[in-house]
Amino acid sequence: MTFQWHHFELGDPKLPDWLSANVPDIAASALTQSETRPRCDRLGDGVILNLRGVNLNEGQDVEDMVSLRLWVTSDMIVTVRMRRIFALEDIRKQIAEGIGPETVGEFLTLLVTGLTDRIENTALRLTSATDDMEDAVLEGGREDLAGLGPLRHTTIKLRRYIGPQKDALVKLAALDSPVLTEADKLQLREPANRMALALEALDAVRDRLLGLQDHLDIQASLSQGRNGYVLSLIAGVFLPLGFLTGLFGMNVAGLPGTEWPMSFALLCIAMVAVAAALVAVFKWLDWL
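and the corresponding structure tokens:
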């Protein structure tokens, strides 16, 4: 290896003193920030680089992306993390096996490629889940749609960091710095392009999920409208019948038919006739 790699946990108590002795103040401040967004900035002969990776740690949410802070010069790489990053673990294993990167450019290419691979795979899984939900809606099933909200939440949170990360990688691949050779920049363009494709896939998933939610809302609104319409027609039929039963059910003197044995049967026949007449009128008006 033609460079030194120094790796730290963000909570390491020795980190501030080591950074003060070996790293410029601005870079040291960037390496110790608790909250970061993807960025790529040249500082003198070095590069400040913040990246994000999907969270594949056990028991944690994939959209809770892990952050990686880097200070890169032509002969030294400093990485600082809060949680385990599998792309970094892959490089560590390669170095232990004697097949690790020989230059700073190779290290950055391996790291960015590893992060991009996992982000790309996650975007594909989200796309597949969206396909399944769309198929369920087209088939009329709703039992699998409880995950629509969480899926939208995951997509939005991933999109929040992948957009800036794509910009950071594009900037890194075109950066005028002694840290990277032209061959290194050429190698970095491929993961930058793949990151742009993953971003487009997430945008498509987000838009499809939004359209799916709108479709479900419209279907629910139409269903409620149909149910309300049916209830209105039923009320239209039974309202006159309720008036008749209320009228003839009054316990006052002078009601006709109180002493005639056939009055109840005649009233029932009249109510059936009224109901049939109302149904016929609704059909004639094309309400049924």
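(Above: one complete record from the training split.) Strands lie at 4-9, 39-43, 46-53, 66-72, 76-81.
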